[in-house]
Specification:
1159 residues; mainly alpha; 3-stranded antiparallel beta sheet; two-stranded antiparallel ribbon; 52% helix; elongated
């Protein structure tokens, strides 16, 4: 056997060996026993040793037990030096014929070779905690060794190394899934990991002499396509979940390392488009080169080799000196060089967390035409057959957090999904364009091939992961989520334009789910504000996501007038404190799913969505800073990226009219550099015209506002605060409304308790709530107050006795003097906590009131103090102190199941009276407000009079107090509804102007009135009326005035007047013609100033007195003072009751005024 190529040389004694010599010698001996090239046969065919299988197993044990467990890499270093893979393993695989695939002995040896090949090509990246001295010692050598391994596999003379590796897994793949054991599953995963390792290996340090193209992405793709690797990947991906259940994780890694860094649009360009793209790129490069040469041109003079100093004279005669010949290149070259020296570069600390470090997202891989076409075929086949099963399985694995998925699986998953979603969109566009060029109109395919990325579960997983990564500031992982979210929105946008109705309905549902969660929309805003020093690609993905999201959300909100989102409820301080207390109480117990679901439901609520309010959240400095930082790369941006930033500025500046936000020096300087600077935007750029128009419009508005508001000259230098923004926009300061704190709700103790029981209840409640310090403080306060009040009383009594003794007994007795009043005692809370409790703690306030304390001011505020009033004696204070001490030492005990809180209830605030000023309160159901506004109940000129207080029906009022509140509420609502129905029937004459001449009618009317006045007043004389002014009567439903002498009335010609129809207890009255009813009689005594209770149109009775007014009989005067009898019919009440009635006197009456337009 011949010696291997690349065998190690003798180690010089001057340089210490990095590997233990005993380990090296043992590994070398095993490799020698494995086999070698034959010296007797022609061609040097590789011949296995007698114990080749055992040697392979021994080497595998050494790798596992020494390198992996001890983390030393000594064995791998020795195997790389002896060239095991190139000289032995690949040669053994090359001797495997196709007919020997099912040969078990041969298959066992080939499997042992793969078991060695896989760990030797395994990625060498490790965490900082796992790195050792041996790792850094062997890492450079092993990286170059792996490069050689990949090159040997891809460029082997047999051109079937990858195919032979795949053949190792074919017997296991052929076994049905039900009969497949752990060994078969392990063999399949072993082969897939070997393919993954080959895809990962790259050149560690490419140079001009060795760019690494022989192991680059193009060579890898070509080898995978030629040696059936892509076919294996398609087979496994399409059978994930059915035939292959444990290979989804390694499949994801292989796909990630195949497609990362490759532009999706490049692989779907045809040859013509690719040539045009290359020619455009070359033209751009040539233009850039010419501009660079023009800027750096130098005139050939004899002074080129010498230094140069140029001075520039200003208008005021001052001179500026600029060193260097660059100042001679242009008109403004010297000033620009001076500006560069004055530029302040803010120092930044070391990027210890690697925020600005570039990642796989920042690479740009270019593949050749052959690899591009092969990759395109694989991508199209994968989307059609393997996209849904593979990514559906991986998504479920991420939700369950299975062990077969690595920590980087989520990042790789969303990156690959985003890449293939974009590939599907580009493929559809390329197909449409090809059909248009060929004149073919083919039917569009459904988007069902990418349904796994459009499911509700996928969107939930994506949102959850993005929130976690944002909270943990994992920017690289978050970038993968942003890319995926952006491509989903692009896909949904294309689905809305699809001619297939199912796709349109699905797109509508997806948008509804995307824009339903407010937390997702707020996350996008927070990501935009979180930019600090991330790489350019991160900034590009962030701005693209925000741009697409705002555009799609605006379109969706415009199409849907009523849009609702689910948002978190705003927690007040009380809710937060309660949530904290509940969390502490439930910390020890376990919550089931139902309790968690109920708590989650209480924390969120649906509310109407307003796009204008959501868009206003982007109108802040941090969002603008992110887009300004993105536009700073204008020399590297394409037209689409530049317009992305300009559209955001236009949204703020023109659509929202928030010009002041963009009035900044850095933005002015940016537009100047883009348009007129030495490194300005090329005029050939497609976005140049739009940028120029916006910059001109922006500067025009800026100069106009500078003339209008000179203070803006200073404000453009600094970041604007909200108050400054409002003042610059509106010319005045914003009105700030400070919410006044509100006192605690008034509480009271249920009736039936004396003061001892009341004090015991409140003290028990405070002690149960761990507020015993308030009780102890009150005890000290009342002790001092008792001493102070008793001292004052003793002093007052002594002064009185001295005055009596000093008074002359013979002198007349002086008038009684006023009794002196003791001063009030103010309660000092001593601490801010107790001061707040005296204002916000209702139970503590209840104890103060129970003990007789009062508020110093009726209009209570947070600074109002409590006092012990002057009318409380020292004995009363002593009794209160005794009750406090008694119940604080031994709180009262109540019956089982009864708590002291059960005796406390909230005081119901009195209901304000309803307004009857022509327009009732708006009804949420709607429908009657217009009618009420057209027909007000009172004339506007007479609505100022107040209702008169009635003295009748006092017993009825007492009985109403005993009626339950719910019945009274029903009566009130029924009466209000009846009132609305009456208003609708009113034919008011207030707004009717009769154009006919009614002079004769008016004369007749006034003549009749004059005759009534001449007859004089009439008396109401009741023969059955008692001297005390009370009589027995029955309340009936209809009140009628019956004339005792109807003949005399008829003879006198005085019309009989009917009393108004009253309303029963249920709020219903008799239906009839309202115009025929008489509402009230307005009687004014000219001799007596005492008002008589009346109810007129201009003087309505308040609703609070309606119950009294219903039962009050109204007496009307007859023409000749004949006695009349009032008969009241009441169906509900049959008992008699005494109604106080004042005996009428002979008085001069005013004319009867009758109204017929209300009850």
């Amino acid at each position: 056997m011949s010696s291997r190529e690349g065998s190690p040389e003798i180690v010089d004694d001057k340089f210490p060996d990095v590997v233990d010599p005993l380990i090296r010698a043992h590994i070398y001996s095993l490799c020698t026993a494995l086999g070698g090239a034959s010296t007797t046969e022609v061609g040097g065919r590789y011949t296995l040793g007698d114990d080749a299988l055992a040697v392979l197993k021994d080497l595998r044990r050494w790798l596992k037990l020494y390198d992996e467990k001890l983390n030393r890499y000594d064995v791998a270093r020795c195997l790389s030096e002896i060239n095991l893979i190139k000289g032995d393993l690949l040669e053994i695989l090359a001797t495997w014929k196709d007919s020997d695939t099912m040969n078990k002995s041969k298959h066992r040896i080939m499997l042992a070779c793969i078991e060695l090949l896989t760990p030797l090509t395994w990625p060498l990246e490790k965490d900082d905690e796992q790195m050792t001295r041996n790792y850094h010692r062997h890492m450079p050598v092993l990286q170059y060794a792996q490069q050689g391994y990949k090159k040997a596999i891809l460029q082997h003379r047999s051109n079937k190394m990858l195919k032979d590796i795949i053949r190792v897994a074919l017997p296991s793949i052929a076994v049905p899934v039900d009969e497949r054991g752990d060994r078969d599953e392990g063999i399949i995963k072993l082969v897939l990991y070997a393919i993954r390792n080959i895809a990962i290996i790259e050149h560690p340090n490419p140079t001009d002499m060795d760019p690494g193209e022989d192991i680059g992405r193009s060579a890898t793709i070509n080898a995978f396509a030629d040696q059936n690797v892509f076919d294996l990947l398609l087979t496994i991906s399409s059978g994930i979940g059915d035939e292959f259940k444990f290979q989804d994780g390694v499949m994801l890694e292989i796909l990630y390392h195949i497609v990362k860094g490759i532009d999706v649009e490049s692989i779907f360009r045809n040859e013509k488009q690719e040539n045009e793209k290359k020619s455009n790129d070359i033209s751009q490069l040539l233009k850039q080169e010419n501009e660079a040469n023009r800027k750096n041109v130098r005139t050939a003079t004899r002074h080129n080799r010498f230094g140069t100093t140029v001075w520039i004279e200003k208008e005021d005669g001052a001179r500026l000196f600029v060193p260097g010949q660059q100042a001679l290149l242009g008109k403004n070259a010297g000033l620009e060089k001076m500006d560069q020296t004055k530029k302040y570069n803010k120092p930044r600390g070391a990027d210890k967390k690697g925020v600005s470090r570039k990642s796989d997202f920042d690479m740009n891989i270019i593949v050749d035409n052959a690899a591009r076409q092969k990759l395109r075929d694989f991508v199209e086949n994968f989307i059609d057959s393997g996209f849904n099963p593979l990514f559906h399985s991986i998504r479920r694995g991420l939700e369950r957090d299975v062990d077969r998925l690595m920590d980087t699986a989520a990042k790789q998953y969303f990156t690959v999904v985003a890449w293939f979603l974009k590939a599907e969109r580009v493929r559809r566009n390329a197909t449409k364009q090809a059909d248009r060029e060929n004149g073919v109109s083919a039917a569009e395919d459904s988007f069902g091939v990418v349904a796994a990325a459009l499911e509700q579960e996928f969107l939930i997983t994506l949102s959850k992961r993005m929130m976690e990564w944002f909270d943990m500031k994992s920017w690289k992982e978050l970038q993968a989520g942003m890319r995926c979210f952006t491509q989903i929105m692009y896909t949904v946008q294309d689905m809305t334009q699809s001619p297939i109705e199912d796709d349109q309905e699905i797109a509508e549902n997806i948008q509804n789910r995307l824009f339903y969660e407010e937390t997702t929309m707020i996350l996008i805003l927070d990501i935009l504000k979180a930019y600090t020093r991330q790489p350019f690609k991160w900034l590009d993905d962030c701005t693209e996501m925000v741009h697409v999201h705002l555009r799609l959300l605006e379109k969706y909100a415009t199409q849907h007038e009523h849009m609702f989102i689910r948002s978190r409820k705003r927690q007040t301080k009380k809710r937060k404190q309660k949530a904290i207390e509940d969390g502490e109480q439930e910390q020890g117990g376990e919550e089931n799913d139902e309790e968690l679901a109920a708590a989650s439901k209480r924390a969120v609520a649906d509310r109407a969505f307003d796009f204008q309010k959501f868009e206003a959240r982007f109108l802040q400095t941090k969002c603008i800073d992110t887009f300004v930082a993105f536009l700073e790369f204008y020399k590297e941006l394409n037209a689409e990226q530049i317009m992305r930033a300009i559209k955001f500025f236009h949204r703020i500046f023109e659509k929202r009219k928030e010009e002041v936000l963009l009035y900044r020096v850095d933005i002015v300087d940016l537009f100047y550099r883009m348009m007129q600077g030495s490194e300005n935007l090329s005029r050939h750029n497609l976005a140049y015209k739009q940028v120029d128009q916006f910059a001109r419009y922006y500067l025009k508005k800026l100069f106009r506002n500078l003339e209008k508001e000179p203070a803006l000259y200073v404000e453009i230098l600094f970041t604007k605060m909200n108050s400054t923004l409002y003042r610059l926009q509106h010319g005045r300061d914003k009105d700030v409304r400070v919410a006044q704190p509100r006192a605690a709700a008034e509480l009271k103790i249920k009736d039936g308790m004396d003061q001892d029981g009341q004090v015991g209840v409140v003290v028990s409640v405070l002690l149960n709530n761990d507020k015993s310090e308030h009780v102890e403080w009150l005890k000290d306060v009342f002790k001092k107050a008792m001493i102070e009040r008793r001292s004052w009383e003793d002093e007052a009594e002594a002064r009185r006795l001295l005055e009596e003794e000093s008074r002359d007994p013979d002198a007349p007795e002086p008038p009684p003097a006023e009794k002196p009043v003791p001063p009030i005692i103010t309660l000092d809370p001593q601490t801010d906590e107790r001061k707040l409790a005296m204002y916000k703690d209702g139970k503590f306030r209840l104890l103060l009131k129970t003990l007789g304390c009062e508020k110093a001011d009726a209009n209570e505020t947070a600074y109002t103090k409590w006092i012990i009033p002057s009318n409380i004696t020292a004995r009363e204070i002593q009794d209160s102190l005794r009750l406090l001490q008694k119940h604080a030492d031994s709180p009262p005990v109540y019956d089982e199941g009864v708590q002291p809180d059960d005796f406390i209830k909230r005081v119901t605030a009195p209901r304000p009276p309803r307004k009857r000023d022509g327009g009732m309160s708006t009804d949420s159901e709607g429908g009657d407000t217009d009618v009420e506004a057209l027909f007000p109940q009172n004339h506007p000129e007479k609505s100022g009079s107040k209702p008169k207080k009635r003295t009748l029906g006092t017993k009825r009022r007492r009985r109403n107090d005993e009626v339950p509140d719910d019945i009274l509420e029903e009566r009130r609502l029924a009466k209000a509804q009846k009132e609305k129905e009456k208003i609708t029937k009113i034919k008011s004459a207030l707004y009717i102007v009769d154009s006919d001449d009614n002079s004769e009618d008016d004369a007749t009317f006034f003549e009749r009135e004059r005759q009534i006045r001449e007859r004089g007043p009439t008396m109401v004389d009741q023969p059955n009326m008692k001297a005390t002014g009370t009589r027995k009567r029955k309340r009936q439903k209809v009140a009628k005035v019956v004339n005792d002498d109807s003949d005399s009335d008829r003879r006198s010609g005085t019309p009989a007047v009917s009393a108004p129809e009253t309303t029963d207890d249920e709020g219903h009255d008799d239906e009839g013609d309202i115009s025929m009813r008489t509402e009230a009689v307005n009687i004014q005594d000219s001799d007596d100033d005492a008002p008589v209770p009346t109810r007129t149109k201009s003087n309505p009775i308040d609703l609070e007195d309606d119950e009294d007014e219903k039962e009050a009989p109204i007496f009307h005067s007859s023409a000749r003072g004949q006695p009349k009898t009032v008969v009241l019919d009441d169906e509900d009440e049959e008992e008699d009751e005494d109604v106080p009635i004042a005996r009428p006197k002979a008085r001069k009456r005013a004319p009867v005024v009758m109204s017929s337009d209300s009850e």
